[in-house]
Design brief:
Blueprint: H1 12-20, H2 25-34, H3 41-44, H4 56-68, H5 79-92
Length: 97
């Protein structure tokens, strides 16, 4: 049984990317829905060296709006909140005995 604050290894890069690039929970959710790779965000985020690029948060929002034709996801939750809800659902599901 995992600990209460357990985060799977596949989601840890997203948490690190959120901190490193100062992204909001909504922007991380948008990037995940777009299928972006958190390890490759650094190549998109170097707008200071390449002034023709958009800053990463605005780029994610632009791509999301272009793809899904809306400004933000309808249900914005952090990765930690989603994992906590997932754990609650798994623990409360009836077991076959």
């Amino acid at each position: 049984m995992p600990k209460a604050g357990f985060i799977p290894d596949k989601l840890k890069p997203w948490i690190e990317a959120r901190q490193r690039y100062r992204l909001s929970h909504a922007q991380v959710q948008m990037a995940r829905e777009l299928g972006m790779n958190p390890k490759k965000l650094g190549s998109i985020a170097n707008y200071r060296q390449e002034p023709w690029k958009m800053p990463l948060p605005q780029f994610i929002e632009y791509c999301y709006e272009k793809q899904f034709r809306r400004k933000q996801p309808q249900d914005i939750r952090s990765i930690e909140e989603k994992e906590a809800e997932k754990r609650v659902r798994q623990n409360s599901s009836p077991t076959m005995s």
